[in-house]
Amino acid sequence: MEYIPDRYSSAENGFTYPSSQMIYPAPLRPGDRIAITAPSSGVNPEYHHLLHRTRDYLEQAGYEVTLGKSIWTNDKCVSLPKAERAAELQTFLLDEQVKAIIPPWGGEFLMELLPLLDWDRIRQQPPTWILGFSDISTLTFVYTLQTGYASAHGPGAVDISGSDDSTTAKWQEMLTALAGQQVEQRSSSHHQTVSDRSRPGYNLDTPTDWHILGQEDQPNTSLQFSGRLIGGCMDVITPLIGTSWAPVNEFIEHYGASDGMIWYLESCEMNAGDIYRHLWQMDQAGWFRHARGILIGRPAGYSALGNFELTDALQQVFGDLEIPVVYGMDIGHIPPQLTLVNGASAVVNVRSGQGTIVQTLD
Asked: Is the overall model pTM greater than 0.85, yes or no?
């Protein structure tokens, strides 16, 4: 999609999206520059070898790599003081030679950068691919909502270089896709239950099943729905409700009133009660208006609340709304994970515990 400048007023005064269609960053090509910066948590010395591994991997794939100062340190859950993190991130966002930004991993407090970024200047720049998950979805979520530019929820920099499984590897196909191109991703055959960063790759030891809520006792059931993707990690995007950084209702009215929306959501360190409260708040804020379907990733750090389970939380919210839900998906903290593009059109198919997502950059 062609970049259209100068169609915004400031977020504080309200804005209009620059196009009736999503605007996608230019597809990555050999020779393009990728910046690795840590707008949330940095990397402790014992894991610096992962950063070197990622740089070597990306350079061997034909990309130029710029390593930010922020990635090498971590203290009190952040890489650097917020002003320094924001300055480095904005430098990369405003540098037209940087075609993609891939943080090493997530963290805790990326939200404190949002008021420090010059969003008016960012909106005047051509879009940049941003790829990540966990706390990085604070950035990808807000970046898309504030600009109408697509962003990607998927593996971090230390993940893309450490695994050759076909699910993780799709990040590159998604970020190199041409406008209008379709990219199909399939459910993994197995996922990892125990992490070991001392060696590359994942220990994919547990069979993957995509479950259709309410039809768990019908193993041969199937489901299909379509819409535009939006979402992220519930732990960090739900606190944005009521702030100026998350104009979700404006976004879904603009892009989802006709096409419908598909929400993808993951969680970390939340029990079933926490998940219910977060989903309830999202519903009360109107975020599920025009939703055609909900995709729920495997919850990390999860526990039931007494006999109240994840399925109870999902039924409490989406049962009344009659929105189809698929859970146990390859999204989030339990790898491997899909690469999902905020704003892309998607068709979801699930049958007998396996499924596909076909995304179109239109």
From this structure: yes
